[in-house]
Write a structure and sequence with these properties.
This protein is α+β, with helices and mostly antiparallel strands and 195 residues long. It contains 4 helices and 10 strands. It is globular and about 45 Å long.
Length: 195
């Protein structure tokens, strides 16, 4: 019998929001020269993330104690972006719009699938002209995972940062009320990194 890999909802929401934003993980490479070349080719970016004020991440129908098919949708703001390895110095901010579906409850989510689109900007606060876009494809994670992580984890399949993965960490205040009141929406904040 396969062991239960359930992760608490609050942690999952933190992982999903950060996973989608930080879902651009660095590829493996051997030796210093290849590793440096890989970083230069794929880039490395970190940003703070948060849902739009007054527009939380929504779940339809609301997530509850019993697993059921759920549609998730929301917009996440990326700010204070920086490139530790200097490969993506022009990106300063962005906005991610995503939607997906999964079988979800307060304690687990499985089979998350969906897409997200990130628009990148060279100035703070998403001002000025857009630098380009990235399309993020959400993919099911092994076992069950947090609601927020599940909908924020995937691979960039086209545009800027193509082939990279996003991974993040977010907190979602109020998610502990899910079992008793259900969870129709959640505000989240944290950080995300692309590599």
């Amino acid at each position: 019998m396969t062991p239960d890999r359930t992760v608490p909802l609050a942690r999952r929401l933190t992982t999903i929001a950060v996973s989608a934003l930080l879902a651009l993980g660095a590829p493996a490479a051997t030796g210093r020269a290849p590793e440096a070349a890989a970083r230069a080719a794929t880039g490395h970016l970190t940003c703070s993330v948060r849902t739009v004020p007054g527009r939380p991440f929504t779940f339809t129908p609301p997530i509850g104690a019993v697993p059921r098919p759920v549609r998730a949708a929301g917009t996440v703001l990326l700010d204070g972006c920086s490139s530790p390895d200097g490969s993506l110095p022009r990106i300063a901010s962005g906005v991610l719009e995503l939607q997906g579906n999964a079988l979800a409850s307060c304690t687990r989510v499985t089979g998350a699938r969906g897409t997200g689109r990130i628009v990148w900007y060279g100035a703070a606060g998403r001002s000025g002209r857009a630098l380009g876009t990235s399309v993020l494809t959400l993919t099911p994670q092994a076992g069950s995972s947090a609601v927020s992580s599940a909908f924020l984890s995937g691979t960039v399949t086209s545009g800027m940062l193509m082939h990279q993965q996003a991974r993040g960490r977010v907190s979602a205040p109020g998610s502990e009320r899910c079992l008793t009141h259900g969870l129709p929406a959640v505000d989240a904040a944290g950080s995300v990194s692309f590599a």
